[in-house]
Amino acid sequence: MTDHTTEEKTDRAVLVGLNAGCLSREENATESSMEELSALLETAGGICVGTVLQNKDTPDPRTFIGEGKVAEVKELVQAAGATMVIFDNALSPSQQRVLSDELGVAVLDRSALILDIFAQRARTKEGRLQVELAQYKYLLPRLTGMWGHLVRQTASGGKSPIGTRGPGETQLETDRRHIHRKIAKLEEDLKEVRRVRGVQRERRIKNEMPVVAIVGYTNAGKSTLLNALTGSDIPANNRLFDTLDTTTRTLEISDTCTVLISDTVGFISKLPHHLVEAFKATLEELSFADLLLHVIDSSNPEWRDQAAVVESLIYELGASETPRIDVFNKCDRYSGDILPHGEDIVTVSAKTGEGLDRLRDMIGDRLDAGAHRVTLSLPYDRGGLLDTLYKEAKVESVEYGETILVTAVCTPKLMGQMDEFLLER
User: What pLDDT is attached to residue 103?
Assistant: First the structure.
């Protein structure tokens, strides 16, 4: 037996992908999606010890890649001392079961790997609730395989002896009910989280502080951009899914325009559908944002495909009508001839600071409501107007003398209502 106390065991995985003519582009494995799978594995703390990309007309219904390929993968697993096999494509529960039996090691698909990373990364209560919900939804159809060991314990020939089938089935049903109950409870808890967020959002709307949401493919540099713009120090590492919990900071565009800017979870191709569902509470901020910053890694040769994945998720989350600026990040590492350009496009390097002033100006142009700093002289019998100012303007100072002197940043609409009390604009 190996001693695990001195050194931490690292999972060694063989990565397998299938490229079949009958599968959609989204479902197929390609060299770049296999590279991404390898990066996901690294993020999860494992190492890749071999890669197999199989070209086949149609997936094998039983083993997905066909018997000959299974034998080849098994040899590779044994030669490389792999502890698991990870598929880039989605596997059905029965394919996962058969492959695990035949290869003699754990078999995961891309969804399971992404879920594992999410489970490691979630920090806030909401993030953890969402991950747990997605894990249970993933687990539910796979329960049957987990009770296969009860059948394996039976005699090798003939029917299963009396008593071995019942408990397995009963246990399976009990587990199913338990998981359904857990899912219902988690969905209830998430509803509560959304309700609280809704209240906070209403308060923000009342304070008329515009909201900017940063979206983009995983590892496009969203956290680095948020840090560069706001001077905050959110951990920004070069690994996939480093940010799972929404971080919100204030960004002062000018002395009369302050916005709230939020970093969101990175998108990725082939994101399991129940994960999109589970993360809607995090991403619902998008549909309430006044402006989206779509961060694109311009140094990545696949940036067009990555941007298309983000586009489709923005659409799915009902935020396609929200004004947007496409931020081409990492322009210091861009290898093309002409940098992307256009009215709603800006090229920046969050690392070197290049282009950030232009991005700030663009945010200001779209969100500055034309507010002005004004001084108002309110008679004491109209003191109630001070409440209105606290609710609808940014009050900077109040002095009580012959009248109440108030300095505040007001929107044009509010200035119109207070016109008779304006001292200077």
Answer: 92
265 assigned to a ligand binding site: yes
H or E stretch including 14? Answer: strand 12-20
Which is nearest to 385 in space by CA: 415, 356, 344, 365?
415
On whether 89 is known to bind a ligand per the annotation, the reply is: no
Distance (Å, whole) CA 191 – CA 193: 5
Say whether 6 sits in a helix, a strand or coil.
Answer: coil
In 292-392, which residue ranges form alpha helices assigned H by DSSP?
303-316, 356-367, 384-392
Q: Is 48 annotated as a binding residue?
A: no
Beta-strand pair 47-56/394-400:
unpaired
d(CA 217, CA 295): 8
- Is 409 assigned to a binding site? no
Q: Tell whether residue 216 is among the known ligand binding residues.
A: yes
Angle at 285 between CA 279 and CA 290, to 5 degrees: 150
**β-pair partners for 252:** 258
Q: How far apart are CA 192 and CA 174, in angstroms?
A: 27
Task: Establish whether 21 is an annotated binding residue.
Answer: no
Cα separation, 119 vs 117, in Å, equals 5
Q: Is 349 annotated as a binding residue?
A: yes
223 annotated among ligand-binding-site residues? yes
Residue written as token pair 């990175």: 266
* Residue numbers of the chain with a pLDDT score lower than 70: 1-9, 144-172, 200-208, 232-246, 255-256, 272-274, 277-285, 337, 369, 424-425
Classify 373 as helix, strand or coil: strand
Three-state DSSP class for 82? coil
Q: Which amino acid is at 403?
A: T
pTM, rounded to two decimals: 0.70
376 by DSSP, 3-state: which?
Answer: strand
Q: What is the mean pLDDT of the chain?
A: 79
Residue 295 marked as a ligand binder: no
